[in-house]
Amino acid sequence: MTNTPRIVEVRQNILKHNDEVARELREEFHEAGVFVVSLVSSPGAGKTAFLEQTLTILNRQCHPAALVGDLATSNDAARLARSQAPVKQITTGTLCHLEAAMVRTALDGWNLADLDFLFIENVGNLVCPSSYDLGENLRLVLLSVTEGEDKPLKYPTIFNSADVAVITKIDLADAVEFDWTAAKDNIQAVRPGMRILEVSSKTGQGMPEWISFLTSRPA
Amino acid sequence: MTNTPRIVEVRQNILKHNDEVARELREEFHEAGVFVVSLVSSPGAGKTAFLEQTLTILNRQCHPAALVGDLATSNDAARLARSQAPVKQITTGTLCHLEAAMVRTALDGWNLADLDFLFIENVGNLVCPSSYDLGENLRLVLLSVTEGEDKPLKYPTIFNSADVAVITKIDLADAVEFDWTAAKDNIQAVRPGMRILEVSSKTGQGMPEWISFLTSRPA
After folding, report:
1. A128/B96 CB distance under 8 A
2. Given A42, A70, A175, which is nearest B172 (Cβ)?
């Protein structure tokens, strides 16, 4: 395809620009003392439910906030707002991922120094978000038991770009005959030593361990 | 972002090139008398399981074949090959969707006139594949009950680019308290009049209706 060299060049420019903005954001987050966690996963892996539980628990003890990305609708922001934490929706139109500049724009009007944690929920997509640094301190990749154990092998880049894997919807593990050993082996094959958490937003199982992991991190 | 006009221009060129190749493919498929069905969905919505069942059933009565796209691994091709139908894997590397040129390359060595049906399983992604015509006659979008009823509203473009919606993993509908009315209303809100099929690849429920729908279509 004759377009290829131009695509690569434009793509490199976009990524370079994104990295610059992400670096600025990371400095701002650090100065303000806010710990930033981004969440990536397939559509429907349970990012919003997990985040709603997380915000609800954290909101009792500190100041969390969230940005949530979707192509269309502000349904997720409405769901997350039930936690009482500040939430803003980023609507991307047809864009398949969040970029650092969108995060910066969305933060307008918020005083970062008032926040302890900022969560950024990406568009549901196991491919495209992997290349875009959002200035976060920690990137979670969520994998629901209903998606199958092979996803780390089939989408290695996103697992490699993340810091922690969260296996979600574990209340359904028996119903779908989830193979825990295969899933964990596949995660470790792609990213040896990766920390794996297991949660059910429905039953609350695993949430205390997650909150403890999060709040015990150095600031 | 100063890159935007160049991105739009390059993207338009890619899509134009893709449309040209897709048009040529569509003519070849028509001349060869092969009916081509593409499948798009989130990662883990059950495309491969659904396709394995479909190929196994069709292979008893006619000549189906399949191309299957993934970023990495040829696991899906190996699964589909159990159906005894011809199958080829397309590995996209970091590319988040299939393009018509990849389909054309993958078809090299196959005589289309020997086939009755060709299935093309796209990379698991509810965003990016929507813009790429693959020369198919019919595009299915799969939505598993475990993903939630809101996905059509949140990923409207892909539902608009598809011809038929297939609700998968219906054996799990009760376990996840799937709201059938909301799901169907959301599909119809995005694409009024869209045909909806309901299947479980695990129990076989809905497969006869799907096969009947497929084989009763005019050539």
Report:
1. yes
2. A175
Disruptive mutation site among B17, B21, B71 for chain A (greatest number of A CBs within 10 Å):
B71
- Express each pLDDT in B9-54 by its tens digit: 888 888 899 999 999 999 999 999 999 999 999 999 999 999 999 9
CA distance A217 to chain B (A): 31
Q: Is A137 on the interface with B (CB under 8 A)?
A: no
Task: Return the pLDDT at A176.
Answer: 95
Kind of pairing between the strands at A117-121 and A195-198: unpaired
The answer, for B5 touching chain A at a CB cutoff of 8 Å, is no
CB A119 within 8 A of CB A51: yes
State pTM to two decimals.
0.93
Record: contact A125-B126, CB cut-off 8 A: yes
User: Which domains are present in chain B?
Assistant: 16-213 (3.40.50.300)
| pLDDT confidence tier of residue A4, bands split at 50, 70 and 90 | low
Give A62→chain B minimum CA distance, Å.
30
Residue type, A120: I
- A155 reaches B (C-beta below 8 A): yes
SS (H, E, C) A39-105: EECCCCCCHHHHHHHHHHHHCCCCCEEEEEEECCCCHHHHHHHCCCCCEEEEECCCCCCCCHHHHHH
Per-residue pLDDT tens for B76-97?
Answer: 999 999 999 999 999 999 999 9
- For residue B218, the model assigns a pLDDT of 58
B/e letters for A126-156, b = 16+ CB within 10 Å, e = fewer, are bbbbbbbbbbbbbbbbbbbbbbbbbbbbbbb
